[in-house]
Amino acid sequence: xxxEKDFYEFLMEIICKQNSxxxxxxxxxxxxxxxxxxxxxxxxMHRKQYGNLQQCFKAKKNPFFSYxxxxxxxxxxxxxxxxxxxxxxxxxxxxxxxxxSVQKKLIEIxxxxxxxxxQVCGMVYKVxxxxxxxxxxxxxxxxxxxxxxxxxx
Length: 153
Known about the structure:
Layout: H1 3-17, E1 24-26, H2 27-35, H3 42-48, H4 53-59, E2 65-68, E3 71-74, H5 77-85, H6 92-112, E4 115-117, E5 124-126
Antiparallel strand pairs: 1-3, 2-3, 4-5
Helix pairs in contact: 1-3, 1-6
């Protein structure tokens, strides 16, 4: 049995299926989901090798997530794509589907809030107050360049 593979597939699946816009999950919610599995389930057996969830996460080489302050966060899409090229992302297609769904939701939220995201700095900004000097830290600051093309006025 490959307990580690089962554990990280379980982790990816529960984070993706909870449908959070942030692609993250609190570790106590992960523990709650694990407690619903039988004690001898491979997911629980893998975790038990390390004593607790935090130690289990620290042991992962080339993780597809970050773990801070009791929160598991999936890495940004570009890093996931790089890891996937080496076969290090379990259930990658589920991740891609979830990521695309999340991006659509975020765009809808930006439309509602009259916002867009800058192609240059990545910042989400209010479209109605975008003006010269808002993007960048250099002397010749420019206005934000919209990433998404939609009419919100």
